[in-house]
Amino acid sequence: MLTIIAAVAKNGALGKDNQLIWHLPADLKRFKEVTNGHHIIMGRKTFESLGKPLPNRTTIIITRNKDYHVENCIVVNSLGEAIAAAKEDDNPYILGGAEIYKQAMDIADKLDLTLVHHKFDADAFFPEIDKNIWEEISRDDFSKDEKNQFDYSFVKYQKKSPN
Questions:
Q1: Beta partners for residue 140, in sequence order
Q2: pLDDT 10s digits, 103-137
Q3: How many domains does one find in the chain?
Q4: What's the confidence (pLDDT) of residue 75?
Q5: Residue 69 CB neighbours (<10 A)
Q6: Nearest Cα to Cα of residue 113 among 4, 35, 20, 1
Q7: Which of 17, 88, 104, 132 is deepest in the core (most CB within 10 A)?
């Protein structure tokens, strides 16, 4: 099982200038719960935006730079190598960025998305979700509140079985 996890705005926005462009504590809390104890796979820029390995997870960083090294992380040079490095985990998570998501869409089994019901100015976007390939299997909708400044939904998709 390979799962893509992301927070995506109404217009597909993921981030700008290698940073998140919204703050939703409910999404961060859920992300921590869902990925806890798993391998997390991400590109170098996404890792650098986090600044450090996340606790209680095995961090796998994809980079073209053969000399890149980060203490307490696994560094690989392709998505295929990253998936191989996570083979002990029954459900590793792909954390992005946009190019890694694009590469992973064909091989992922599930999408675990936080949909932010707002449009943002961005320079990184999530790939389009082809409804012929992906089937929505659950959705929980939430309204903005004192901690979360936008309406949002937690939505899970799974790849449809070939006919």
A1: 154
A2: 999 999 999 999 999 999 999 999 999 999 999 99
A3: 1
A4: 98
A5: 10
A6: 4
A7: 104
Please give the C-alpha separations between residue 141 and each of 12, 26, 27, 138, 158, in angstroms, as whole numbers.
18, 12, 12, 10, 18
Pairing of the two strands 39-43 and 58-62? parallel
Q: Which amino acid type is present at position 3?
A: T
Q: Are strands 124-125 and 152-159 parallel, antiparallel or unpaired?
A: unpaired
The helix (run of H) or strand (run of E) holding residue 154 is strand 152-159
Cα 43 from Cα 63, distance rounded (Å): 6
Q: How far apart are CA 50 and CA 28, in angstroms?
A: 12
Average of per-residue pLDDT across 47-64: 96
Length of the chain as a residue count: 163
Contact partners, residue 90, CB within 8 Å, separation at least 6: 1
23 secondary structure, DSSP code: -
* Domain boundaries, position 152: 3-159
Cα–Cα distance, 18 to 126 (Å, whole number): 14
Instruction: Give the tokens for residue 126.
Output: 């999530």
Confidence check: pLDDT of 163 > 70: no
Query: Whole-model pTM above 0.85?
Result: yes
Give me the sign of the Cα torsion angle 159, 109, 105, 99.
positive
